[in-house]
Amino acid sequence: FRPRLESVDWRRLSAIDVDKVAGAVDVLTLQENIMNITFCKLEDEKCPHCQSGVDPVLLKLIRLAQLTIEYLLHSQEFLTSQLHGLEERLRRSLAEGEHSKKLLAKQAGEIKLLKEECKRRKKLISTQQLMIEAKASYYQCHFCDKAFMNQAFLQSHIQRRHPEDSHLEYKTRAQTDKLQSEIDMLKEQLQLT
Questions:
Q1: What's 84-130 look like in SS3?
Q2: Domain count along the chain
Q3: Quick one: pLDDT at residue 75?
Q4: Which of 46, 53, 58, 143 could join 162 via S-S bond, C-beta 3.0 to 4.6 A?
Q5: Are 95 and 149 members of one domain?
Q6: Which residue has the higher pLDDT, 115 or 152?
Q7: Residue 128 falls within a domain, yes or no?
Q8: Of 56, 87, 105, which closes a domain?
């Protein structure tokens, strides 16, 4: 507790209508006078008429009231600082929540893209498995990794995707593939015979 060193401002106190303050719940007037009332020193005060000191029991009551008010001021400051701290934590939590929502939305978009990619790859794998199971011959592009079920699709692909490559190179490779397939067919016939 702080020491009581201030003198009482009697004029200011006498100007206050206590009933009016209580009836109107005039908290502003209370706030304006709280420091003067709480930290004033009453031990040296004398009655203006008889010059006698303040009654010791009344002085004790006023001192207890002053200590109670000081305790309540301290509690008010403590609770106000706690409130500001909690408001700051709430603000940070809300900001983190917004950040988490944005991150969640971003990750949901990435998951959607990955699912689409997964479906596309499953489809590609199932197509390749069907080709392997059927032992179907397929035609592979010589310029990239793509494979096609027939020669017409391969030619169409090369014209669309690889027009800069010379037609001669394509024809020689096509002839080589054709000769290789004929050799494979002759080998099969030879084995049958």
A1: HHHHHHHHHHHHHHHHHHHHHHHHHHHHHHHHHHHHHHHHHHHHHHH
A2: 2
A3: 92
A4: 143
A5: no
A6: 115
A7: no
A8: 105
State the virtual CA torsion across 61, 65, 71, 76 in degrees, nearest 10.
Answer: 170
Q: CA angle 122-127-128, nearest 5°?
A: 100
Amino acid at 35: M
d(CA 171, CA 193) in angstroms, rounded, equals: 32
pLDDT in tens, 157-166: 888 888 776 4
| Residue 163 forms part of a structural domain | yes
Range of the domain at 156: 139-192
* Res. 137: pLDDT tops 80: no
Residue 77 inside a domain? The answer is: yes
Q: Which one of 85, 105, 125 terminates a domain?
A: 105
Residues 62-83: pLDDT tens digits? 788 888 888 988 899 999 999 9
> Do residues 99 and 32 both lie within one domain?
yes
Q: Is the pLDDT of residue 189 over 70?
A: yes
Does the pTM of the predicted model rise above 0.85?
no
Tokens 């206050």 belong to 16
In a domain, 144, yes or no: yes
Q: Which two tokens stand for residue 112?
A: 């959607």
Tell me the one-letter amino acid at 16. Answer: I
* Structure-token pair, residue 100: 């988490």
